């Protein structure tokens, strides 16, 4: 049987390898928030910082729709990749881009209407802040299209194993954003409009770098607008909406909390919350990146009906992600004072004390949020919509706004920060309670905690899982596969061919793939008997290698070469190869 610890090690290595790029991607908007807050507080004034804080819930509404498209599309694409349905994959990609364009056009019109005609009174009644916010909104309108599209493209680049381009685009964006902020604010004195315009133009450069591979045709997924199946758009919205609902709820939460702060604390409280929140957002990129990686891995595992990989994703969350986040949180708390000085220098000012207080309390909710985010993501991908909506409602508005309303009269600004921590505690208890309710007992395994359906994937007696690390182990794999097939009632001929095909292809990976670099590798082997099919699947993290392409090249070459690969293609009913998130996945049906 398979060495489970080896599979978990491979999964952890892959997820940690993908993590830095996804964190950097998630940090792009956070860096922008810090840059904007720095120039707002140091060169324009505290009222400009309030405008930045007021825009948070408005921007969250746009983000919610982008999240809906990205979440729904990535989950669908992951499933279609796992099932090797290429036409559906292309269709989802094309629909995603077109829907992004439509949403952007609608919001651009709304932003222009609100900013030009000064219709923002429902957001703030402060006579000094309102005109500043109007001009800031107009600048943000310029960057809405690249902001929405920029939330979609990176996920598809990850599926294409072109995550490095996201890193390049992120670095370019940060550099352009800093230069433009300095030029527009310090040199040209363009005020709040220039503050937002710098962000918008920076996002255009980000999108230009990201989208180039798709425009030049150097990607597997391509825009195919001629034969769109629009019915898939309903699936994108249905699957992505629960995740988007969370952001919609957070928009409502932001509006409610901002109103409570304005009434009980004043605009100085909004400035302090904007400063601490924008600083925290750079660190929220870490759980955001973790979630982006896990979303891809979960969706592919669900598409392949791979129960072990599915639960291993969550094991990595507990064993790697949460300890890492706890260490980061400790560092934030220790550095609260120097981070506050980025925006405010006078310790005697109330805004300074409120910001320090926020940076010492808000980090405590981050490890809890990692659990909530991953539980919601898995529930979203597996159709547990009731749990998703419950978590979205609690996390998005009920707990934070409710606890703030209860405590702000007695605790002042501190109540806003404490409410976020209490929110995490409540959501974790709800997740655990849901598992207890569904299983009718306390969860004892990861399967119990995730409430994985009993009929998900192949039953244990209908599959075998093996991990191969050397050619010596390959020699015995043929006999194990044959014995398994015969135990399932498969005829002797097919049992023999299954063992032969597995030995040939696994040996090919070890003989060639393992020698291309100095890294340690393993071949993850699965054999499934489903209906009347014998399905062989090999997964490895070696350099990309498509045996189908090698077989085509060998057709007109020396007939003595690549005999094994050609033999497998002759005896198999179907052979499919994919490279998913840096893993070679070969599926053979007999």
Oligomeric state of the chains? single chain
Mean pLDDT: 84
Strand content: 5-15%
Query: What is the count of structural domains?
Result: 2
> How many strands in all?
5
Quick one: biggest sheet?
Answer: 5 strands, antiparallel
- Give me the strand/helix succession: HHHHHHHHHHHHHHHHHEHHEEHHEE
Q: Keywords for this structure?
A:
590 residues, 2 domains, 21 helices, alpha+beta, 73% helix, five-stranded antiparallel sheet, Heat Shock Protein 90
Short description:
This protein has 590 residues and is α+β, with helices and mostly antiparallel strands.
Please provide a written account of the structure.
The chain is of the alpha+beta class. The chain is built from 21 helices and five strands. It folds into two domains: 436 residues, no CATH class; 130 residues, Heat Shock Protein 90, CATH 3.30.565.10. A five-stranded antiparallel beta sheet has the order 1-2-3-5-4, covered by helices on one side. Strand 2 and strand 3 form a beta hairpin.
